[in-house]
Specification:
7-stranded mixed beta sheet; about 30% helix; alpha/beta
Length: about 250
């Protein structure tokens, strides 16, 4: 039976070819603007990450974890960072390569499954940028442990996190669709729903799993903020469905 990680990789490849919003690379103009100090990036759908969360990026080693698509990594390169991007979707990595070729810079691209041991030495990075992608994996705590391992002392992990409500409610009429937790690997109805809607195999995760998982890994929580969906009933009622966190090793 095909592993869910491989199913998700294939589904996201397909989304990229269909023009998925999280796979549309930044423009040449945006790259030049970043070089001139005008830039922003997101961890969650709407709110931009405070620039104070980054500090000086010139010369810093940054890992984009499950962060392909050519949207954030080019900005960090423009700011002088040394960038590596890991993703399990080849098409997302291809988008990174498109921007790198267009703008004439080098980026290390790594196709790997983040549910496995990350293919990097201990204390390799100054900062890890990890947009909402934990919804595509069943267990999140091992990822945070790996992030802790590969960050330098004082290194920063910036994460976008889904709080689970999107899996419980119908985005159009607000009716409850499923009880939580949402795990298609143990619930056939949930699995069938995911397949029917071409969503891949996604999972809900609690704040205990996510922020608690970061703390258990050894991180210190520095800051956080909430965000909403881009559209739908939960957005219309201003109900937060995402968190962004800044933690330090």
């Amino acid at each position: 039976m095909k592993k869910y990680q491989d199913i998700n990789s294939s589904v996201i490849d397909k989304w990229v070819d269909e023009g998925w919003e999280w796979s549309i690379p930044v423009s040449h103009e945006a790259f030049l603007d970043a070089k001139n100090g005008q830039w922003d990036v997101v961890l969650t759908p709407n709110k931009v990450v405070p620039k104070s969360w980054f500090g000086e990026l010139k010369g810093k080693k940054i890992l984009g974890l499950a962060s392909g698509g050519g949207q954030q990594m080019p900005i960090f390169v423009a700011l002088g960072a040394l960038v590596t991007c890991l993703d399990y979707s080849q098409r997302q990595l291809d988008q990174e390569a498109v921007v790198a070729k267009r703008e004439g810079y080098e980026i290390k691209l790594v196709k790997a499954d983040m549910t496995k041991r990350l293919p990097f030495d201990d204390e390799s990075f100054d900062l890890i940028f990890h947009p909402v992608s934990n919804v595509y994996i069943e267990q999140v705590e091992p990822v945070f442990k790996e992030c802790y391992r590969i960050l330098k002392k004082g290194g920063i992990l910036l994460s976008g996190l889904d709080n689970g409500l999107n899996f419980a409610f119908d985005e159009e009429d607000g009716k409850i669709l499923f009880d939580l937790p949402f795990n298609p690997l143990i619930d056939q109805e949930q699995y069938d729903y995911m397949v029917k809607h071409d969503y891949g195999i996604q999972f809900s995760h609690t704040i205990t799993e996510q922020i608690g998982g970061q703390l258990k890994a050894g991180f210190r929580l520095i800051d956080l903020y909430e965000d909403t969906n881009k559209s739908g009933m939960l957005k219309d009622n201003n109900i937060p469905t995402f968190l962004a966190t800044k933690v330090e090793k």
